[in-house]
Each structure stands twice: as C-alpha cells, then as structure tokens.
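Entry 12.
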Amino acid sequence: MRQVSNNIGKVIFAGAGPGDPELLTVKALRWLNRADVIIADRLVSPDILREYTRTDAMIVPVGKQSNHSASTPQSVINRLLVEHALQGKLVVRLKGGDISIFSNILDELQTLTDHDIPYELVPGVTAALGAAAYAGIPLTARGYSAAVRFLTGYNPDTAGEEWYRDLAQTSDTLVFYMSSAPLDRLVDRLLQFGIAEDRWVAVIEQATTPLQRVTAWPVHAYPAAAGGNCYVSPALVIIGRVAALHADFRWLTNSNSDEGYFPQLLSAKKIALC
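Predicted 3D structure (tokens):
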C-alpha cells in the first residue's frame, strides 16, 4: 500500500456492482462512508449514492452513454481525479460493475501514477456475474460449459472471419457486454459460421435491478423470433448451452416496464437501443 503524504489525498477505485445496491462490497461501503468526493459512473445505483455516502460529500456524475454527445470525456474524468486528490481529499472513483472489466481504469491509473497520487483498487461484482445469477444461468456447468469468455461485439463488422468461426465452434459460454444493439448482426455471423443448434441466446436488460427483464431463445430461432428487437440499456447478452437453463432456474419475475433504472444523460429520452 502506498503511503499518503500530508498534502496529497488518495483515490479509491471501487466497483458498485451491476445495479442492486446490496451487491456493493463491505470494503467499498466503508470507503464510501469516508469519502470527501465520489466521482460516479452513470451505471451506479442511485440508492448507493443516496444512502451510503456522507451528507456533506461531493458527488460528481461523470456519465457515459453509447452514442450520446453528453458523455463525459475521459480527459475530464482524469482531470477531476487529479484536482480533488491534490487538494488533499479522499476520492472514491465509483464504477458500475467491477472496476476493471471493460472500463477505462488503465487511463485513470496512469494519470494518477504520473502525478504521484496514491490509490487503492477495490473489486466489485461485474455485470456478467450479477446478470447470470439473477437470471438463474450458471455460467459454467458440468456437461454444458467449462469456460467463460467476456467479450464485446459493439462493432461486429470490424471482427474477422477467424474470430467468428472460433466463437461459433467453441463450447465456452460467451458473455457479450455493450452488444445488444448490434445483436442481430452478431447472431447472423455466428449462424454463418455454423454455431450448434443447442446453443441459446439470453438477453438480460437492467440486470439485478427492479426493472430486470430476461428473454431467451435458441440461437437458430433468434432471427425469426426476436430479430429487430430493441433492448433497454444496459443489456448483457449470454450465448451458449447454459443460456437455455434460464427457463428452468429463473427465480425473479420479469419487469414489464420499459423505464430506465439508471439516470440518463441530460436530455436523453430514449433508452432502448436498436
């Protein structure tokens, strides 16, 4: 652990979990209770910021949202971390899910290192684990899958044929972040490269929140059954044999609401992404 000087504060990188505020770790909670400044992602439960922080703490929202011009630039987030830490404050950089899965933590760590600012890293429940558990889908299971891959298919047209061929032929469970909008194209490519008929695709919208909704189909039936669907952000996609287990082991009732659990950026009104 780095030593804190008398003049420089400290930054705590903490994962807030995928939505349910009770998935926050005890260690993250203790840091939030002490923090002078919380620099929070959009995908952080409002309940965490309302109930688990000091009343005099400064909460700085630095939301990012796909294809939205109001997203906070990474350079601004880096600058905020440095400015507040150099004022001697304890800063919690609160990220949705885990701190290191598909986040820009590397940029932020490098910025702090460049300025000799001490920090600690506190992991959180990443969206893949939270979404799968709340959907009743074991990511690995004997006879179904022995491995899991965390991926993003945000722009499926940029991936090469070998990538799709490998994904189509593997028995691993595939978990796609930030991939619900291009899901039709992603599934089409997997079908093109011969994905097995016993594979399913599950889409978990707003996982672990009161507005969670899970839908699942055999992957070969997806184009006819669900092609063109829009999903409420954030949405996680699970593809593999285990996705079929949702029907047997789901334990939460789907929400019928299309409302968003997480705050939107400025004037953003539409949260379903097509």
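Annotation: The chain is about 25% helix and 20% strand. Residues 10-125 form a domain with the Cobalt-precorrin-4 Transmethylase; domain 1 fold (CATH 3.40.1010.10).
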